[in-house]
Amino acid sequence: MNELIEAFRLVLAPDVLIAILLSSIYGLVIGSLPGLSATMATALLVPVTFYLSPIAAVASIIAASAMAIFSGDIPGCLLRIPGTPASAAYTDEAYAMTRKGQAEVALGAGLWFSALGGIAGTISLIVMAPILAELALNFSTFEYFWLAFLGLMCATLVARSSPVKAIASMLLGLLVACIGMENPGGVPRFTFGVPELLGGVEAIPVLVGVFAVSEVIRALVSPEPPPLPRRKFGSILAGQLALTRKYWRQMTRGNIVGIIIGVLPGAGADMAAWVSYAMSKRFSKEPEKFGTGHPEGLVEAGASNNASLASGWVPSLLFGIPGDTITAIAIGVLYMKGLNPGPTLFTERASSMYALYIIFILANILMIPLGIVMIRVASTVLRAPRATVLPVILVCCAVGAFATGNNLFAIVLVAIFGAIGYVMENNGYPVAAMVLGIVMGTMVEQSFVTSLIKSDGSLLPFFERPVSAILAAMTISALLWPVFIWLWKRIRHRPQEQAL
Amino acid sequence: MTSFTRRGFIASASTVFAGSLVGLKASFAQSTYPSRPITLICPWGAGGGTDATARIIAQVLEQKLGQPVNVVNRTGGNGVVGHTAISTAPPDGYTIGLLTVEIAMMHWQGMTELTPRSYTPLSLMNVDAPAIQVKADSPYKNIKELADAIKAAPPGKLKASGTGQGGIWHLALVGWLQSLGLPPNHVAWVPSNGAAPGMQDLAAGGIDIVPCSLPEARPMIDAGRAKSLAILASERNPQFPNVPTLDEQMGPHKSVGVWRGIAGPKGLPADIQDKLTAALKEVYASKEYTDFMSGRGFGIKWAERAEFGQFMDESDRQMGEAMKAAGLAKT
């Protein structure tokens, strides 16, 4: 109890509160700019944390990353340009809602379910940290292989186009993921002697290119669309309680999936959003509405990506293993501030741990008022003339891509993928599936090859290990399900045909 | 008063002014370096260990030199882009960079032409030796038992991980295996994205050995999931006094380790080198720097200019040997 009081004292210090407020605003702004991801927001905070007290330093990272993941939904919804990779899965859906004149419902759902998801993730961190950590430790490369494979299969579920075209896009993404020397063999592939390609093609420039730049190209060649009817931007939270009541199952499922994916090292908010959106469509009673501006998938995926953010801290705090790219950076800050990860953090420095929990909850509550302000400000973009919005987006893209590594080559990549994305979209190939291929490609290959090295070339352990076997059964049944349905229909229809 | 004309005044005043400008310019070039902000290039991304090291050095260096020192992350190409940017900067002392051990490895793999000799070495700031970790409940009590078990096992039976193929910890293992008289692939290398996933796989039972630095292994050791059998260095790490050295147990062994140091492009003028090295020495001795490094568990080691150059040459030679032995070198 004393520790809890001490924790409140730590959090309520003025410097900590100011750090939370400022980094929240900072996270909201960074996350809403295309090309600047939540990871980037965290990385840019590191030099600032040098000057902060330990709790304030960690608080600023927690607040900024949570806000950035939410605010990545804003440009996705308003302009069909996802602000962070975690929003890419449901960008089309959110944008469709905006075209239907429901921008406030879509953004409100993003905000409301992000905040609830973040709180659910925090509760999992408080209550189940040791159990979840144990789960994470049981994941070896065999399990990761199936998980990544399942992730890839989401491509066909998420896309609105034909499954064949979705798979083609995803395979193109896998091919792009082969570039560079970050493969298990450490051998440069498809680098054509360009040193910049040795490190591979990162997801951020691709994301910016295929979504933002191709959107700008499309706007250039198409006539100005009829302006959205001028009307007052409605209440943001009004419909959310009704949505919560209607979709509480989806929300809970999203939270659980997000928590589990977040806990697993190496799989973060991006994957959580994809898997949850695909699951939502798969189990929905009205899957035909998906992609036409239907909030169900938004609820589940929005709940999922923010839940994964909090649970991603579990392996980081207990074992110093980063749960995602954000906690990878946060671990460095924890060390620097003397809050060394490990079980002792939970026992000897329990007050600091409680303080972290309080900050998580505080940040997710603060997200709602700040998010509403952000949405109100950002929604003016809908009323701005296209000729002023598009050049600004293009500048943001270039700056965002360059800022990742102060590397001009990233801007070239953005341009190339902008052209590729435009051609693909015009021919009905979903670009989101390609992004998924690039995000997952390295993980699929790495986990497959390293597993084979460990098993001396035997495929048996992929099915032998208990968790691996369950995941394998899920993957294979998902693969064979359409074939089964097709066969079943044929068998059932044939006798009738004969009778006739 | 009569001789004082307006024209005469302007002429004399401008002469004085011009003279003082010339003088200022001359002194800018010589004694008042640095007169404008300095850029410190970090070849790795923001948020990592190298980035943090660069930022703490820049922060203290700024106080010592009285000019802002800005860290610029130039990432891409697995370190090639940033290291190239350091070597091709104008040698005026306003662009320096943080070199990492990769500069002694990349050219062997044919990734770049750059070697440690492509720079003006200024100061070595950090060295971390590898240590050998096994699972906490593994039967090996000390490094000797592990060495015997490795020798007894058929080739490829035991698995190790901790970095990518041909990465620094892979080479450290290859070096150790060679000193035991074993072929480099006697212990199979499982590539991973760094030491933390390797340590996780060790705890998950996927692999048998993880060679990596002690700070990287610490959380798992503290959690009672792994134990460190020996550090491959000539002295124990003061932060891990219970981990014996390989030398104590099995005789002297020269191992590769990771290091970070500050360097400028080739042809940096001697007076600028003097000034920078003196300031860097103050950084190295400062409380901020030592506190930061011990907080992160990073080892510190000082060597300046030619001495640092020799250190890099030695590292380069060791890396080349290990990479050739492992069949990873192209040149």
UniProtKB/TrEMBL annotation, chain B:
UniProtKB keywords: Signal
Family annotation (Pfam families): TctC (PF03401)
Residues of the signal peptide: 1-18
InterPro entries documented for this protein: BUG, Bug_dom1, TAT_signal
Assigned protein family: Belongs to the UPF0065 (bug) family.
PANTHER family tied to this protein: BLR1237 PROTEIN (PTHR42928:SF5), TRICARBOXYLATE-BINDING PROTEIN (PTHR42928)
Protein's recorded name: ABC transporter substrate-binding protein
Organism for this UniProt entry: Microvirga aerophila
Source taxonomy: Bacteria, Pseudomonadati, Pseudomonadota, Alphaproteobacteria, Hyphomicrobiales
